[in-house]
């Protein structure tokens, strides 16, 4: 594994995170000295033949790409051409102690962001085409050589009618050949294309980046599993409502007619319902458990927006 001070070249983890993480690419020569990888094609083929391992084959014929999903049989590999194909095996760290140690070498990033180690074996000319990822990735070269062209570009539109996501236009700003032990870091949405010059392996250490919707869903799941709010909704003295959209014309929900928009209903609920009703005796707001939940979710969303704006101002 990498010696201290070599994985990120001359940069400390703090300097790397400040200068490059989610900002700019970084090429490190000899990041892991004498690294040749720890997976051969027969070993990867055995993994790709298992039902519990995610694997894919990408075969290129001219400008056409064919995507095959595993598990694969030995006959599938014997039928492959001598050039222009790539085998991808996900989650190698779940089946190899060496791959797990490799993943943990990047522990300067929180475990919550770590995804897996994917390995690709490519015959000469093999690659998956110019594309971009929605996550951070370190591309560590095993045996053999691979040429990487990469760069940030505004146009991320994709070619139609292909089984793989290939950029319609690709205008790289950098070009480098990686030898064993070299490593390339790429932030999300960085366009890149890797083509094998020899039979080679590349180890992709990926870091998940959840969408805001996924984060909100996980937060709500967290609340659902851990929240315990005593009591039950009550509405004594309920009078017939003018519309089933409104609980009652006499409630403090402010719902007086059925022609309000959902947004108006939500605004009235937040301002006049049990989320913040007033106690007539004290004339002070009564902050209920529901109000606390709403305020917590609102604070969570506000922090996310502030973080995005802060990141944008640094670019």
List key phrases describing it.
about 325 residues, alpha+beta, Jelly Rolls, three-stranded antiparallel sheet, 7 helices, 11 strands, about 25% helix
Structure description:
It is built from 7 helices and 11 strands. It has about 325 residues and is an alpha+beta fold. The chain has 2 domains: about 200 residues, Jelly Rolls (Sandwich); about 90 residues, no CATH class. About 10% of the residues have low confidence.
Distance between the termini: 33 Å
Task: Please bin the fraction of helical residues.
Answer: 25-40%
Strand order within the widest sheet? 1-9-6-11-5-4-2-3
Strand content: 15-25%
Outline of this structure?
This protein is of the alpha+beta class.
Write the layout of secondary structure elements.
Elements: H1 13-19, E1 26-28, H2 41-48, E2 55-61, E3 64-69, H3 74-78, E4 85-89, H4 97-104, E5 114-122, E6 136-141, E7 146-151, E8 174-178, E9 183-186, E10 191-196, E11 200-207, H5 212-226, H6 262-272, H7 289-314
